[in-house]
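Design a sequence for this backbone.
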């Protein structure tokens, strides 16, 4: 298997780097360090940056041209993700990275025309309504109901840990349309959050942000025309979404970890402890593990480039990158000491890295998109074919 980038893909990388040089005024870490930027301003920066990317054709790169993309491949999309790690994250990341592929695979032409353009431009920001208080890792245990109301439905229930809920305009929701069918009784709805029957409550995280929210439905309207797929096909469509969530950001994770490890080595060198054998051994182990992640990431990318959707093998990568993220952050706190614990706006913090935020947020990465325990179950059952008992 040839993992080298083609001449056209290298040309795309050079073109993108030149565009970023001309259009990225400040890096994301600089925006975070600016004391005038509160949470709302930071989200507005993300939304404006998304609009600029979309105007220049850098979103939905691998989507068909008729649906707002450039008709390139997932390889160019992965290159884009890797090259933009220092830029502000886009506002509708959940919509473009997760819902977008589901719409392309499962939606009608009318639904694609209605939702994809505004998703790409950032005019409509999306969040994901999957997890519930009693249905996180066991997603099929969800209880949110969709009750028929004429031609449409009314939603009753609650979603939790909903990323970007406080800032979103729309939510894609898994709701139960048949209480007696665990998997076949789930339907995939697109629902406007701008309804009196929906209450969104921010959740303050350990990092101090309110990226997550709780969403309460009290008779909220879910239109039949906004059902993706058929009634009862929600579970199948959700598996498409989750597979992309677990396996589609291979090079982006690698680029982040390259940057993190470089900053860690520089910080240790500045402390004068790089020559210690125990320190060098820890850094070497992190470097070797990162290269294993690179090999797994290229394998996943090759699968996507061949036109296949991510399979259960994506669970291998999700376990590895999420647990590596925690190990890397823990080692940084240990090797860099107090400097790594300073908040990003401290004048004494690392200038190009927010280790305090990374250490706190890394506690979540082994849980979201399917916990490590769930991923190991998937690997055991669907790859290794081990018995359930």
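Sequence:
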């Amino acid at each position: 298997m040839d993992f080298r980038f083609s001449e056209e893909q290298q040309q795309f990388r050079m073109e993108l780097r030149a565009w970023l040089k001309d259009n990225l005024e400040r890096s994301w870490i600089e925006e975070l360090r600016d004391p005038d930027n509160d949470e709302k301003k930071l989200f507005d920066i993300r939304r404006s940056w998304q609009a600029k990317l979309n105007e220049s054709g850098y979103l939905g790169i691998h989507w068909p041209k008729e649906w707002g993309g450039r008709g390139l491949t997932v390889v160019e999309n992965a290159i884009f993700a890797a090259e933009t790690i220092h830029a502000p994250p886009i506002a509708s990341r959940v919509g473009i990275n997760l819902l977008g592929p589901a719409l392309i695979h499962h939606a009608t032409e009318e639904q694609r025309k209605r939702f994809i353009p505004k998703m790409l431009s950032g005019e409509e920001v999306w969040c994901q309504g999957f997890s519930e208080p009693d249905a996180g890792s066991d997603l099929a245990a969800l209880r949110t109901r969709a009750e028929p109301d004429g031609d449409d439905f009314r939603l009753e229930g609650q979603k939790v840990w909903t990323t970007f809920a406080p800032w979103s305009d729309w939510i894609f929701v898994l709701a139960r349309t048949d209480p007696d069918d665990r998997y076949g009784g789930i339907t995939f709805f697109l629902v406007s959050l701008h309804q009196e029957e929906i209450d969104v409550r921010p959740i303050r995280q350990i990092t101090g942000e309110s990226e997550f929210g709780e969403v309460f439905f009290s008779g909220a309207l879910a239109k039949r025309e906004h059902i993706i797929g058929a009634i009862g096909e929600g579970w199948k469509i959700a598996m498409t979404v989750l597979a992309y969530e677990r396996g589609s950001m291979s090079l982006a994770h690698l680029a982040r970890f390259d940057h993190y490890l470089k900053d860690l080595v520089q910080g240790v060198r500045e402390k004068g402890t790089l020559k210690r054998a125990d320190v060098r051994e820890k850094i070497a182990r992190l470097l070797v593990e990162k290269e294993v992640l690179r090999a797994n990431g290229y394998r996943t990318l090759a699968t996507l480039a061949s036109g296949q959707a991510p399979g259960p093998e994506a669970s291998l990568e999700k376990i590895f990158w999420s647990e590596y993220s925690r190990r890397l952050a823990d080692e940084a706190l240990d090797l860099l000491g107090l400097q790594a614990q300073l908040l990003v706006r401290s004048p004494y913090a690392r200038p190009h890295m927010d280790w305090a935020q990374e250490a706190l947020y890394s506690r979540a990465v082994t849980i979201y998109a399917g916990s490590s325990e769930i991923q190991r179950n998937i690997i055991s059952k669907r790859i290794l074919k081990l018995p359930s008992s």
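The radius of gyration is 21 Å.
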